[in-house]
Design goal:
Blueprint (H helix, E strand, L loop, with lengths): L1 H13 L22 E2 L24 H4 L9 E5 L10 E4 L5 E4 L6 E4 L1 H10 L38 H6 L1 H4 L10 H4 L27 H4 L18 H4 L13 H22 L3 E5 L7 E5 L4 E5 L9 E3 L3 H5 L18 E3 L13 E4 L5 E5 L12 E6 L13 E4 L7 E5 L4 E5 L6 E4 L10 E4 L5 E3 L5 E5 L13 H4 L3 E6 L31 H6 L1 H4 L10 H4 L27 H4 L16 H4 L13
Parallel strand pairs: 6-8, 7-13, 14-16, 15-21
Antiparallel strand pairs: 1-2, 2-3, 4-5, 8-11, 9-10, 9-12, 12-13, 16-19, 17-18, 17-20, 20-21
């Protein structure tokens, strides 16, 4: 008898009923949902949902299974879908406490039963074709869609393998793709753990066997989000790089996103602090061409190479002139590589002048040291030379905690720094620099006021005042204009806000800012300030790790007040099938030009992470 009841129940659950099974009608809009899911009557349509009652019997189609149930069917709180949705079998949610839906149809509709009837059905040991985990409610009209689940997702070429199917074996099925090459972990976030908070990346995760392939690496190409990590459980990237892989819940709120951005900045600060005193590895090779590596104060630098196949060594030049032949910082390097009086670092050297890999050196906070390979012409012709700059010590007890800090460096090119009325401005730097206040923009030091040559000097100004500052280092009696200001473009202006400016008149909160650490790959002087000079061209410049400027220089590249949404009408010029979904697969596609002449990152703002979560 039990077996017959199971068969009867399965047959019932698989029958096709108008409006109950499958996906919603084409073109269904959310504002039309009251025509398809009811709580009260609507013109020309159904009566209200089933109201229950102690005298109500189970319908004949259910009698074989429910005929001896201890309780009658319960009332529906909501019901659907279609014009006739007032029977006991059309419940979406239940009206009475203690009742829950036993799903009968693919659209997640069914009958409301109490605890006694649930126990009765359990004793029969039957199962339905559809369950709460495998059914598919109509996406637009579902009132309680978990997290950001897309109920229209299904595995390519198999419409029955949807998010409910993924939920049964998430460890294996969250990596399947649909016809658009979109992963299940992107669409079935409830099933794949994407509803957890917070929506952040794990700084410790990396690909198994390759510590350099972190979440930043995974963010460049969506297929990388399926790789296995180094943890004991072999967890995949999308479980640990949830923000990078788009595997989190819907776009975070403004406050939450702002908090995460600030948390990320704090995490970077903590990471740099942890690196102080640790070993920073440098791949010692040809082609470095005068690269400048900045490391935390107190860190040790280790030069490494494959000494089984490569002949290298490390010498420390006596000064910058021996390193590149320049008396000043701002002229192009001449590759002098003068090893006279240089310091030989590392152990014993062989007949070629090479030594063993693993040469270590530590500099003082704020110090810059210069290194080259003395083997053959590796330095002069091969470009195997570089500078290492140790950051200045962080003195937090200097009484200027509220000062506006300016990173005093080459390449400012007269940039204007806007600061609040009454603010103190502090200039910080490493290496040989100084600050002078000029009478006008430019590099004319006639009548200038010398501020100081120690990092941390400060200036103040009156509300509404603007002051022009420049570095005087390098000036000579024969040519007083020659200086870091002229050759290194180390000049700027500071403008204090007017006292009458209302701080409440700003544009409100934002998650957008310009990174202080991003720079063009292997060109540390080309920062977000450099991008700001020609943003239309330079926002597509790549930095280390192939990170675009528009991702890190978001303020400069126009992301402020841009909603985190993709333009459904955008597509690549000449290829209508390549839309924002296509762009989201590979970060390089954010540089594609659209049919409307707009770059992808400007129209596919969410897919390209080029938006402001505070935009409304």
């Amino acid at each position: 008898m039990t077996l017959l009841r199971i068969v009867a129940f399965v047959a019932l659950a698989t029958r096709s009923v108008l409006g109950k099974g499958g996906l919603p009608p084409d073109g269904l809009r959310k504002e039309d949902c009251d025509r398809w899911m009811q709580t009260t009557p609507f013109p020309g349509g159904a009566t209200q949902c089933f109201t229950g009652g102690v005298e109500v019997a189970w319908p004949a189609s259910l009698s074989d299974v429910f005929g001896n149930a201890p309780s009658p069917p319960g009332a529906c709180a909501t019901c659907g879908y279609g014009a006739f949705s007032n029977s006991q079998m059309d419940c979406i949610t239940c009206e009475d406490e203690g009742f829950e839906v036993v799903v009968l149809y693919e659209s997640c509709t069914g009958v409301c039963v109490d605890a006694a009837t649930r126990d009765y059905l359990a004793n029969l040991r039957f199962e339905s074709t559809w369950t709460a985990a495998t059914c598919r409610p109509w996406y637009e009209c579902d009132q309680e869609a978990p997290c950001d689940t897309d109920f229209r997702f299904h595995k390519k070429n198999d419409e029955y393998k949807h998010c409910g199917w993924v939920e049964e074996l998430p460890a294996e099925r969250c990596n399947v793709k649909d016809a658009d090459q979109v992963y299940a972990f992107e669409r079935c976030r409830a099933a794949c753990g994407g509803c957890r908070e917070p929506c952040v990346d794990d700084d410790d995760w990396h690909k198994d066997g390759d510590e350099k392939k972190t979440c930043a690496w995974a963010s460049r190409f969506i297929n990388r989000c399926a790789v296995i990590g180094a943890g004991a459980d072999g967890d995949r990237a999308h479980n640990n790089c949830r923000a990078a892989c788009g595997a989190c819940d819907v776009a975070p709120t403004c406050a939450a996103a702002t908090g995460r951005r600030l948390d990320a900045a704090a995490a970077t600060g903590r990471r740099l602090a942890e690196e102080a005193g640790k070993v920073i590895t440098i791949d010692w090779k040809l082609g470095l061409d005068g690269r400048v590596q900045t490391v935390p104060a107190g860190a040790t630098v280790e030069f490494v190479w494959n000494d089984a196949t490569q002949r290298h060594s490390v010498n420390q030049f006596k000064d910058k002139y021996a390193y590149d032949g320049n008396q000043q910082d701002y002229f192009p390097a001449k590759k002098t590589c003068d090893f006279t009086d240089s310091i030989k670092l590392g152990g014993p050297r062989n007949n070629f002048g090479a030594s063993a890999s693993g040469v270590r050196v530590t500099g003082e906070p704020g110090e810059t040291l210069y290194f080259g390979c003395p083997v053959g012409l590796h330095c002069r012709s091969g470009g195997q030379r570089m500078a290492v700059e140790w950051q200045a010590a962080d003195n937090t007890d200097d009484g200027d905690d509220d000062a506006v800090v300016i990173d005093w460096k080459f390449g400012l090119k007269g940039k204007v720094f806007d600061v609040p009325a009454g603010a103190t401005v502090k200039f910080v730097w490493t290496g040989p620099h100084a600050v002078s206040e000029l009478l006008a923009p430019g590099c004319d030091f006639e009548g200038a006021t010398y501020i100081g040559d120690q990092s941390g000097v400060t200036i103040t100004g009156e509300p509404g005042e603007i002051k022009y500052v420049a570095c005087p280092i390098g000036r000579t009696a024969a040519n007083p204009a020659l200086s870091h200001c002229l050759g290194g473009q180390q000049r700027a202006a500071v403008r204090w806000a007017d006292a009458t400016d209302d701080p409440d008149d700003d544009d409100g909160p934002t998650t957008v800012s310009d990174s202080e650490s991003w720079f063009k790959n292997e060109q540390p002087s080309r920062t977000c300030a450099w991008v700001a000079e020609l943003p239309e061209q330079r926002c597509l410049t790549k930095g280390e790790g192939a990170i675009y400027a528009f991702e890190q220089c978001q303020l400069t590249c126009g992301a402020k007040d841009v909603k985190c949404a993709d333009d459904a009408a955008w597509f690549k010029d000449g290829q209508p099938d390549k839309d924002c979904v296509w762009v989201s697969r590979f970060r390089n596609r954010c540089a594609a030009l659209g049919a409307d002449s707009a770059l992808a990152y400007k129209k596919c703002a969410r897919s390209c992470n080029a938006c402001d979560y505070c935009a409304v």
